Amino acid sequence: MKQLCLLFLIFFLKISAQTEIKGIIFSDNNSPVNRANIILLNTQNEIETFGFSDKAGSFSVSTDKVGKFILQITSLNFHPKNIEINIDYKGRKIDVGKIGISKLKEHEIKEVVITRQNPIKIKKDTVEYTADKFATGTEMNVEDLLKKLPGVKVDNEGKIKVDDKEVERVMIENDDLFERGYQTLTQNMPSKSLEKVQVLKNYSKNKLLKNIENSESIAINLTLKEEAKGKWFGNILLASTSYKENMRQGKLNIMNFTKRKKLYFLYNQNNLGLNEMKGVEYLINPSSDKDVENVGGNLQTLSIVNLHRKNLQFEDNRTNFNNDKLGSFSYIYNFQNNWKIKMVSIFNEIENRNYITSVYKYNFQNITFTNIENNTWKQNNRNIVGKLELSKDFTKSSNLLFYNKTSSLKEKNDNDFVFNDQFNEQYGENKLFATESKLVYTKKIDSSKAIVAVAKHLFQNRPYNFYDENNIFQFITGNSDVQKINQQIHSKMSFAGGKISYLKKIDEDKNLEIQFGNEYKKENLSSEIKLFNLQDQQYLFDNSEFINSLNLEQNKLYAQLKYNSKIKKWKYDFGLLTEFISSKNNKQFQKGLFVSPNFSLGYELGRNQNINLFGSRKFSETRLNNLFQNYIYQGNRSFHKSNLNFEMLPDINLGLSYNIGDELSKSFRINIHYLKNEKMIANNTFINPNYNFNQSILVKNNHSFFSNLEARKYLKFLKSRFSLLGNIMISSYQNSINNQPLIKTKFSNYKIGFEMKSGWLKKINYELGYDWTFNKMISEINMNDYTDHKVFFNLYYNFTDNFRWESKLEYYQFGNTSQKTTQFLDVKIDYILKDYKMNLFLKGNNLLNSNTIQRYSVTNVSESVYTQRLLPLHVVFGINKNF
Amino acid sequence: MRNIFLFGLFFSFTVLFSQNFVFEYEEKFYDGDRSVINNTFLIGNDKEIFYFNYNNDKLISLEEAFENYTTNKSPIKIRFSLVEKKIYDYRYFPENFYIGLEDLPHISWLIGKETKIILGYLCYNATTTFRGRKYMAWFAKEIPISYGPWKFNGLPGLILEIQDSENYFWYGIKSINLESRLQVPAKLSSFFYENSKNYIPYHELFNKETNFLLDLRSKVRSNAPSGTKFIDSDIRIFLKEKILVLP
Questions:
Q1: Is the pTM of the predicted complex or chain greater than 0.90?
Q2: Residue A774's domain spans which residues?
Q3: Under an 8 A CB cutoff, do B219 and A759 touch?
Q4: Residue A772 resides in a domain
Q5: Residues of A in Cβ contact (< 8 Å) with B217
Q6: How big is the A-B interface in CB pairs under 8 Å?
Q7: B65 by DSSP, 3-state: which?
């Protein structure tokens, strides 16, 4: 009570220390002026205080200052009036009485419009976020921060989407360290060093082509806080199971960025089944190069034989018995004279093991047999990749880029096969050396035109050498001493190509591109099989059917035209590729002119309703792996050769897509795709219980049909999204057995299912799905069908912002297997220690300890059941710390 | 000659009876998806004022543009009734639209010492906190209109520029016309009179808006790919009014 009195007293004293100035404002016709502005100005013309007159025209303003003042009275359409006031002591009450203000005369009222251009302009394609405004302190890395930005989504694998479009690259201070492998950066860079996040729409990697090429790409640029520049930061992750299971993971990321210089070092190691190569795969298999800046589209490294079988049916972390080590170093330096240097090097060592037991039942024309195999595939890889890139901006209108990428791969295979209780071993070594150089020159002619010239050279050398210990050649040669096979294969490729492109933006919605290019490719392949007895003595036999020497030269001269345009609700895209191809396959010459048109036509039927039609006819060429005329042993009791000559294989593609509705509330979309292969490579197989011989043959007119549809609806009462999913795949293929007439087979696969996902804003959320897949195969000689089921239920619970629970339950049932069902349960608990910039996690994988999973597959002459071994139950505890 | 006389008479008549002030602003804000620039107008007299946006894409004269004005191209529509001391604020939701009614908010300003010249007017700076955001304004005491863009009011002069401390919102004057023959677009003023059935108290509108955004957030989350992690931010982070304290 006492305090309250004191407060009142102070309040009163304060009030009483103020000088009050009051008065009443009238206009010419003696009526009070409402809402006139009363401003008290000091001698420096600063505003001391202000007020407004009320309906009666009276006003009152107060000040605690003393001195000379001007009371300024203004009102709309009135002449302003200034009254001098002198306050000689505090607490005075000054009544200025009635003040008359006079209306502006009509002739003084002039319609004067004053205008200006505003200083703030939005950069058209850039949205900028200030990192601190979105950060709440719980973010461990850049990815966590990006998730908070509106319209930005990050999926499980770290791929970032902005407005449902995938982000192409994430740069730091306008330098791109990781290209498509940007997860490395976003998942490991602490977010606290960020100043701004810029989302760049219609992004062109080559800045001279910005607004000239038709780009819908999105990129993100991160800028650093001044104090973070030049500082070392990064993170470290350590995780391990108990001593018994002996499974571990370690990750170290160290980085240092300035405007001029960027440095990034990372080291990853694990034997938890995680594929560490994902983050650097972009460097080994690049595909992100924009069309105009690339030449030679079909240059993937061919695999002549594959001595390792990876399991593709299931996720790596279930089946990949591994031990991976990966180190990478990236460096960028921007010189003052507009040169830029970029270096990336990767070193890795990978060990993969895959355990499969399979039962293979053959049944054709009264020949039946069953083979039981028990295979352990083990591969050790050692990759070294180095890339050096130099670029220079000459003027504002031209730039040059050069890079060289050299890689060396060494692959060692050590497989153990048990074939019908008989033990076989396989050792193989496979090396790949590749070097690639590219030069790109861009010249911007004016704001709507540019020329890009590109030249590329590529060389690849790939020797294989492997031993197989088995009895196949005892059957083939009739000599029971033959126990070992040695095969040496050598393949080489050289490529040189050049292309010049002219790009023109005709107007805002029309783009034209014309390209001319020439590509030359030379490939060699040689192979030879030698046989040995157990004492490693060579057994000589007529190996003419098992020796290859192939030279393939090909030159492609081409011109390409691309045009796209948008007119009101229509969207057109046309392309025309004309190629003159000459080839020399061992001594056979061939040449021909091939024309490949394509189109795409879109129409906006209404708001949220689009239809799109597309089609193309194109040619693909037979490559080396389909041209060797004598058998190459593929390992695993199978031989392959080709009965083909160099061929161009035409196909026709037609597609239709339609969507309606608002994605968030209710939507429906359907895609239909039809493919006709006028010519296609198929197989003629000579089957024998102990081995088989495959021959590539040419078949005509194969058809495939794919369709998928999705109907989505947001169920308000459940605050959940429900999706109905459908998938149809029908394809026909032809093959031949023992050189007999072609067998036509139709394979169909119908998948139907649903998915639900909650959007609850509370602590708990779920995801649920079920799908059925109906598989059916009908051929002229047999038929078979089976159904697969898959169910998943994921539950997320956030105890607090720092403490999260995540559990995933999966259930599988594969048709035609003796295994009824397989279940998986994985749990992850994550706890963030904000103050220590670290998080602790506990991951329990395969908690139900499912050991194996079985799958069934079928062809027109066989059925197989595979049993795949799975990583057993393991619980990992880990720490992730930023520094 | 007579025609000119008549015209002159007509002219002076309109000047006499329907003079409005018209201020054109540029309103830049971040709507949570992209930065938006709206061309807005503050038009009115001592009885009523309208604040609305209208993007004049065709670059025709303002007179023509105002004549062609349609309400559905103008999501920002605010009417100030100076007589009632009330604000009528329009808001669109997919299922319906509403006009929220509130008392003219009292904004306490702190006037600073800095000045700068905008469009030839000496402007004083003033700061305030209004509905969850801190603002700094520049106002011209020579223009004795105590309003500005959006709902800002209470300064002894027109606000020519104002922005929030987080830089989400920026309003700047583009043109000043103290005495204009331009009229409030008829469709705009009638819109407020004809839709009295859609009047609701402003705090109800505010809650509707919050709930709409929460629902939208649920929709976005439920439509995201499996396993997507979300981190919460303030639901009204991109709205002009972050909070509303009932008087």
A1: no
A2: 721-883
A3: yes
A4: yes
A5: 759, 761
A6: 175
A7: helix
